[in-house]
Design brief:
This protein is an alpha/beta fold and 426 residues long. 38% of the residues lie in helices and 16% in strands.
């Protein structure tokens, strides 16, 4: 079986709206390695877009899922509930930042978690407006893509977006938008477009995912919390990509010293199995009436079993510290290449949620062509990379946090060779 043949079948059978980054077709995977149908090995620095933080097929996750398979696979929690759903909710209630009583709801995808967070915020406040940020990504459902601060490819061609959603510039000093600039726009928004007393929630990623791995400045998050409290607005932290040790903490909001009212999560929670959740203040989460939240597959017992195993692994293998160590090594290697690769404009990211941004040498002009060249050349050498950013000029690094030292060292060597060769050919 050849990748090329499957690719032709895929083009004939699957909507072109489902884009793919590579044309390699997976046959098997283990921890941070993937083998394609032709037997070629790749080092995975994508992790299913921050899903397998605990690695492909972690033995503890597989064992938990196999044990659950032997018991039952689906009852619908709203019909016949089960204990491990309750247990995982209790653990998340304890783990999510915030010194207050919390409650949790399980759904299936990150977009669903965001949708339900907005529903809960509206029910709790009696308000309808939501404020999001440019460059943010919150999913592909209608509310998710309306909240998302990027048109192409997420909103293009899909008609009118949902009402009562507003965007404020995300503060990125590198691109000339300061904290004060963002706050001034927010103030003008309150004066010109929406009464703050009609705003149900702010929603923000502590570190933007698709937007380019830009961190929310600590001073900005603190001020946003103050403004929210001043006007009775809820703060939703979208931790779908930042959660589960990716930033060196279980949740990225732990870096800020302030707590969100609602936290959304997915991806890394399931270790490769579909599960998502929203956890928030108990009184807020209880605002919708019975039947107002849920879903047929929400909190599927297989995903719940995987989620409980993931939380065990994070503690047992000390993945928060591991993320800090790996990220430091990656950023150090990238920093050593700054003079050899003049396209490097910035190296950033907390924990092991890291990125390198490329511009035209000696300028502030984004260099998407160079970025894509790096991705393609790395893939040819056996390293899977992802690009992101509003301008498409960022490579983001999302390898499993459980990656073996020897495999990580090999990946760094491939990355360095790729960058040097790309710069020499530019």
């Amino acid at each position: 079986m050849l990748n090329h043949d499957i690719s032709n079948r895929r083009s004939d059978a699957i909507s072109r709206g489902v884009g793919v980054t590579t044309q390699i077709y997976a046959e098997k995977a283990q921890n941070a390695e993937i083998w394609d149908v032709e037997g070629r090995r790749y080092i995975d620095f994508a992790a299913g877009i921050a899903v397998v933080n605990t690695g492909h097929r972690h033995p503890k996750v597989i064992a938990a899922v196999k044990d659950q398979l032997d018991r039952f696979t689906h009852t619908c929690h709203q019909v016949v509930p089960y204990e491990n759903y309750v247990r995982l909710a209790e653990r998340l209630n304890d783990a999510v930042p915030g010194n207050f009583k919390k409650k949790t709801v399980f759904v299936t995808t990150g977009a669903e978690a965001v949708e339900n967070a907005v529903k809960v915020a509206r029910a709790a406040t009696g308000r309808s407006a939501v404020i999001a940020f440019t460059g943010g990504f919150h999913g592909r459902t209608f509310m998710g893509m309306t909240l998302t601060g990027k048109v192409v490819p997420y909103k293009a061609g899909f008609g009118a977006m949902m009402p009562d959603v507003f965007h404020v510039p995300f503060p990125v000093e590198l691109h000339g938008t300061s904290i004060d600039d963002s706050l001034q726009v927010l103030e003008k928004l309150f004066k010109a477009d929406v009464d703050p007393n009609r705003v149900a929630a702010f929603i923000i990623e502590p570190v933007q995912g698709e937007g380019g791995f830009y961190e929310v400045p600590k001073a900005f998050m603190t001020k946003l919390r103050e403004i929210a409290d001043q006007h009775g607005i809820l703060l939703i932290a979208d931790e779908v990509q930042t959660g589960f040790s990716r930033t060196g903490r279980l949740f990225a909001m732990e870096h800020y010293g302030v707590a969100a009212d609602i936290t959304t999560m997915a991806k890394g929670l399931g270790g490769g199995f579909p599960i998502a959740a929203l956890t928030g203040r108990a009184e807020i989460m209880d605002a919708p009436g019975p039947g107002g939240l849920g879903g047929t597959y929400g909190g599927n017992p297989i995903g719940v079993a995987a989620g409980n195993a993931v939380l065990d692994i994070i503690v047992e293998e000390n993945l928060n510290d591991r993320a800090e160590q790996l990220g430091a090594r990656l950023k150090q290697r990238l920093q050593s290449l700054v003079h050899a690769v003049p396209q490097i404009a910035d190296i950033r990211g907390p924990g092991f949620m890291n990125a390198v941004e490329f511009n035209m040498p000696g300028s502030t002009t984004p260099n998407a062509d160079f970025t894509n060249k790096v991705r393609i050349k790395a893939l040819e050498k056996g390293l899977i990379l992802l690009t992101c950013g509003v301008h498409g000029n960022v490579v983001r690094f999302l390898a499993p946090i459980t990656i073996e030292d020897s495999v990580f060292a090999e990946a760094l060597d491939i990355l360095e060779t790729t960058l040097r060769e790309s710069a020499a050919e530019a």
